[in-house]
Design a protein that fits this description.
mainly alpha, 10 helices
Length: 170
């Protein structure tokens, strides 16, 4: 929304006060999935007390409008599509306050080939050029580690010839 089209702060707060936590949370979920923690935080920011937020979230969960498992799966799918590895995705899901069972289920549900994903990211990063020399391999390894791929995957790929997309990792 452009700044000229925004409602004044007073008008926004009056609207939030006249709405209940359930309506606000439902409106948030209509746009995208949210974790329980994220919904509670956003409802608090909108001026709803903790009891009201908790009741609203419980009602949404009963109606299957809010699900931490569905949120975890959606976020994991999105981040994997962006080229992130399992360690980074797991860390982000933890930051949303999700249970380890939901996180593990979301990553298992992906069924991703992390080695192939990492190789594709590295080829894109290197521009299809061969990575030669210790310094270039170290930069490539650091890139993959930042993207959230594990050390074994990084080690395998930085020893392979990435100029050839059909090359097998060492």
């Amino acid at each position: 929304m452009s700044p000229s089209r925004r409602r004044p702060a007073q008008q926004r707060s009056d609207n939030a006060a006249s709405r209940d936590g359930y309506s606000d949370a439902l409106q948030m979920l209509a746009r995208r999935e949210h974790s329980t923690r994220e919904l509670a935080t956003r409802l608090a920011r909108r001026g709803h007390d903790a009891d009201e937020a908790e009741a609203a979230i419980a009602r949404l969960r009963e109606q299957h409008y809010q699900s931490d498992e569905r949120f975890a799966a959606a976020l994991a799918r999105h981040r994997a599509g962006q080229g992130y590895g399992p360690l980074r995705i797991r860390a982000e899901l933890r930051s949303h306050g999700l249970a380890e069972a939901a996180i593990g289920g979301a990553l298992d549900e992906l069924g991703a080939d992390w080695l192939a994903n990492a190789a594709a990211q590295l080829r894109r990063h290197a521009g299809g050029k061969a990575i030669t020399g210790a310094a270039a391999r170290a930069r490539a390894a650091a890139f993959l580690l930042r993207r959230g791929f594990d050390a074994a995957t990084v080690r395998a790929l930085t020893r392979a010839d990435l100029a050839d997309p059909d090359a097998e990792p060492a």
